[in-house]
Amino acid sequence: MSNTYDAIVIGGGVIGGSIAYNLAKRGSKVLLLEKDRLASKSSGAAAGMLGAQAEMDGVGSLFQLAKKSRGMFPTLANEIKEKTGIDIDLINKGMLKICLNDQDQQENKRIITTQRQNGEEAEWLTGSEIRKKEPAVSEAITGAMYLEKDGHVDATQLTLGFLKSATVLGVVIKEYVEVHSFKFSNGKVTGIETNEGHFTSDKIIVAGGAWSNKILAETGLQLDTYPVKGECFSVVIQQPLLSSTIFSHGCYLVPKKGGRIIVGATVIPRTFNQQVTVEGISLLMEKAKYLVPSIVEAEWERAWAGIRPQTADGLPYLGEHPIYKGLFVATGHFRNGILLSPITGEVIADLVEGKEPPLNLSPFRVERMVKQYT
Ligand SMILES: Cc1cc2nc3c(=O)[nH]c(=O)nc-3n(C[C@H](O)[C@H](O)[C@H](O)COP(=O)(O)OP(=O)(O)OC[C@H]3O[C@@H](n4cnc5c(N)ncnc54)[C@H](O)[C@@H]3O)c2cc1C
């Protein structure tokens, strides 16, 4: 079998999966390499929230990207279901961004005004209005911003859905293949070396999540990125406890199918350590109990951790390498990689094909902020 491809994607997370899927939809012969198992890193650890309005103020380039991406999920869910039978469990029951004090309330009322001025739907709810909607929310909570359009998906199913759809379209996927180095000729990328030998392509996309900088080190480019550990746990409850996602400082509760609730997430910068700690989980439990006291009745399921890829200015890197033609980077999606995955796949496929993307990508260009550039 030939080792030459139209494009090679490095990384079997949600970003690599979406890029491979989009390239394959356009007829490219694609290889995707993953050093571990598919969806085994950040993408398999995520709570799956599509928090375009909860995570961002409602203005700016990242919000525009996020809003477009959120709007792509209904069609994507159908496409993946049709191609593979995988259900990404898209649930659109809104998000309550809970305020814990007066400062929070003022800030969220300001955000509601900004979002409404920009044509978004955002509503202020008093304590009694919150409990009318979600009776399990604590009496101590006196206000929240309600965001009807911020839903959620099953992050692992989404990632595997992208990857499986890609294979249906002919993408070759190899697990346990680690990319060690690139080959270049006349300022262009020509291939890669791996533990399973050499593969040739003049279009290579680095979607290695928090490990992207390590992959790019030999190219003379050190992106201003850092890893951020996050821990979560899940419980199951017989009587449905929540309908909307409850989102607050340092804690969210995401109601999944079958009475399952994901509680997340800790935020521990600058570590690749993926151990789940008693400290992390007990902190989340205290916060979850404060927000939704009856969660104490739920049955324990499991706990896990993942490493988010963050950047110094909070924007992902989406673009071509400033030195080597044909080498593309898609990383730094931090807390929003699940939300941003559909649009990332589309715009990176545009760049690889030399087409103009539907959005201005200059705020995300790779050379905007590098720590080292030799
Ligand atoms: C606890 C937690 C909760 C989160 N919740 C949400 C949420 O609710 N909503 C949301 O939108 N986002 C959420 N996120 C963020 C989201 O998970 C990430 O932004 C997203 O998964 C990043 O995807 P990725 O494909 O870039 O990275 P990853 O999923 O980490 O994938 C990168 C892959 O590249 C592989 N790789 C690395 N180096 C090499 C190499 N040399 N050769 C081959 N393969 C390599 C890795 O093994 C890995 O599988 C959460 C993250 C965490 C940790």
Care to describe what's here?
With 374 residues, the protein is an alpha+beta fold. It has two domains: 7-65 and 156-224 and 313-373, FAD/NAD(P)-binding domain, CATH 3.50.50; 91-150 and 226-311, 2-Layer Sandwich (D-Amino Acid Oxidase, Chain A, domain 2), CATH 3.30.9.10. The chain is 31% helix and 27% strand. The chain has ten helices and 20 strands. Strands 3, 4, 5, 12, 13, 14, 15, 16 and 17 form a nine-stranded mixed sheet that branches. A six-stranded mixed sheet has the order 6-2-1-10-19-18. A hairpin with a 2-residue loop joins β13 (245-248) and β14. α1 (14-25) packs parallel to α7. The longest helix is centred in the N-terminal third of the chain and has 24 residues, at 61-84. Flavin-adenine dinucleotide binds next to α1, α2, β12, β17 and α10.
Topology, element by element:
Layout: E1 7-10, H1 14-25, E2 30-33, H2 42-45, H3 52-55, H4 61-84, E3 95-98, H5 102-117, E4 123-126, H6 127-133, E5 143-147, H7 155-168, E6 172-174, E7 179-185, E8 188-194, E9 197-200, E10 204-206, H8 212-216, E11 221-223, E12 225-236, E13 245-248, E14 251-255, E15 260-264, E16 268-269, H9 278-291, E17 299-311, E18 317-320, E19 327-331, H10 337-353, E20 370-373
The chain binds flavin-adenine dinucleotide.
